[in-house]
Amino acid sequence: MAHIVVATHGTFAKGIMDSLRLICGEQKNFTYFCAYVDSDIDNGETQISGDLIKLLDSFPKDEEVVVLVDLLGGSVCNEFIKLIERRPFHLVAGVNLGLLMQFVFAPEELGKEKILEMIEEAKASIVYVNSLISNDEETDSF
Fold this sequence. Notes:
This protein is of the alpha/beta class. The chain has a single domain (about 5-140), classed as Rossmann fold (3-Layer(aba) Sandwich), CATH 3.40.50. About 50% of the residues lie in helices and about 15% in strands. It contains seven helices and four strands, in the order βαβαβαβαααα. Strands 2-1-3-4 form a four-stranded parallel β-sheet, with helices on both faces. Strand 1 (about 5-10), helix 1 (about 10-25) and strand 2 form a beta-alpha-beta unit. Helix 4 packs across helix 5. The radius of gyration is 17 Å and the shape is globular.
């Protein structure tokens, strides 16, 4: 079974994991990391780099790890990019609850192709709902 890490700026990771637990129950293979909270803010990337190394090193080397971050190009994502050569893992930016749920119900072995498929399915769930419930274009504009 793959290890899933949700890592974000601030406490977003904790909040989205709380929502996931509410809907899907406890997930033993999921971990979260909240960057730049409390004392981390003053230490910047140097502090979180060490914490991320410890986190990645906590997983067995022969087991698959998927890291889901909040923002492509953000500092959390950039810090993980620096670590990809240190220990292989999948890195996905743009985490949302729909994508996390995809990982709850995913097969034990993931791989690149399955992860790409799950990302596409999650993208399809981002919609402008007003257009779904109304055929009248005038109600779409405010």
